[in-house]
Amino acid sequence: MQITSDVYALDSTARSYAYLVLGPEPTLIDTSLPGSSAKILEEMREIGLEPSQLKHIVLTHHDVDHIGSASALRDATGATLWASQLDLPYILGERRRPGVKRLAEMLVKVPTPMIDKTYDDEGGSLPLEVIPTPGHTPGHAAFLYRDILFAGDLVTSKGMMLRPAPNMLTWDHTVLKASLRAVGTRQFEWVCPAHGQPIRRGQLWNQFV
Ligand SMILES: [Zn+2]
C-alpha cells in the first residue's frame, strides 16, 4: 500500500506492519514476524527496490513481531541494522522479556540479529528523525519522515480510532503517557502504526495531550 510518493506499508506484513521509505537512503521500518523476509524482499522488488539497495533497517522496539525477520533481512540486503540501546539486551537475548512477553518469546523463536548501530550513538545520521518514545518498552523509538510518523507500538489504529498499545503489554504507563504527550507537540499528518492501518492524524492525537 502506497501512502505517499515514496512511502509504502508492506501488505505482506499486515499483522505487524513493516514500512518502506525510498529516497536516497532506502530504509525499512521494522521487520515483522520471523519468516517474513522472503515476502518482504519480494514486495520490495515489486515496488522497484533491489534488496541490495536497502541502506537501513530500523527497529522500533524489541518485540518479536518487530524484530522477527531482522537477522534474515540484514543478511539478504547488507543494510545497516539499528536499534535503541535500552532495548538491545532484549533483542540480543541477554535479558528476558517481562510479563506475557516472556510467553511470546518462548513460543516464537526469533533468530538473534546482529545490531550494527544504535540511535543513541549515531541516530542523527539516519534519513529519518529518531524520536525516543519509551513506555511500551524501555527503548521504544518512533520515526518522523516528512509528514509521516512511524509509530511502532506507541499507538495502534482501529477503524478511525487511535489508541495506545494494550496495557498488559506496556512496560511503564506513566512513561508512555509522557511520550504520547511529547509526540503530540510534533507536526505530522499521517500516523503509521505496526498494528492497524495507516491513518490521518486529524484531531486524533488530542486525546493524548
Ligand atoms: Zn507489535
Note down, in words, how this protein is organized.
- The chain is of the alpha/beta class.
- The protein has one domain (2-208): 4-Layer Sandwich (Metallo-beta-lactamase, Chain A), CATH 3.60.15.10.
- The chain contains 7 helices and 14 strands.
- It has helices at residues 37-47, 64-67, 70-77, 88-91, 101-107, 119-122, 173-184, and strands at 2-4, 7-9, 19-21, 27-29, 56-58, 80-83, 117-118, 129-132, 141-145, 148-152, 155-158, 161-164, 190-193, 199-200.
- A 7-stranded mixed β-sheet has the order 1-2-3-4-5-6-7. A 5-stranded mixed β-sheet has the order 8-9-10-13-14, with no helix packed on it.
- The two termini are 30 Å apart.
- The model has no long low-confidence stretch (mean pLDDT 96).
- Zinc ion is lined by residues 16, 63, 65-66, 153, 194-195.
Compute the number of helices: 7
Share of helix, binned:
10-25%
CATH classification class? Alpha Beta
Termini separation: 30 Å
**Portion in strands:** 15-25%
The low-confidence runs, each spanning 5 or more residues with pLDDT under 50, are none
The helix/strand series, from N terminus to C terminus, equals EEEEHEHHEHHEHEEEEEHEE
